Amino acid sequence: MPKKSKKKHSIRLVKGLFVGLCTKDILYYTDDFPMQNHKTKTEEFATYIGGPAANAAITYAALGGDATLATCLGNSFESRLMMEKLNEYGIKVLNYSDYDALPNMASIFVTDNGKRTIVSGQHTFFVNREFDLECYDFALFDCNQQEISLDILHKLEDKTIVLDAGSWKANVEKFLQSADIIISSEDFR
What we know:
By secondary structure, the chain is of the alpha/beta class. Helices cover about 20% and strands about 30% of the residues. The strands form 2 sheets. Strands 5-4-1-8-9-10 form a 6-stranded parallel β-sheet, with helices on both faces. The chain has a 4-stranded mixed β-sheet with strand order 3-2-6-7.
């Protein structure tokens, strides 16, 4: 009787490109939101990498996906630390900027009942790089960093496009027209 052959089955990971904002988030857990001209103190605070595109890439990588983040991190000391942390999460980074200022940052105030207020500091970065984008199976866009987002959107017309429609922004209708999948809250409608 012939032996059964043991075929090796290879599983190809679906490669996802996550396009948009990556921030250094500073979270403050407080009893109340800060009042004008008052100081609010807390012993509960932390820093994380955030931003809609970065959070989606981190989640996808944690679930075993092959994640690449296309963003404008810049080239400051803080930016390089963020890139190292993203690499530790298993995320490849396509950094579209060599700008030396602080990376995009957000201060987030969270109360005991889960309500939040976000102050987001975002630079307009100079885009100066080209990357090969053909190897990706899908791309998620958060509609931030629109110069690179629109450029990448036009290059990926034959790929599955996912839109993270967190809030209405300029040019969002261009992303809506190209989107195969739309993720949004009721606030977006």
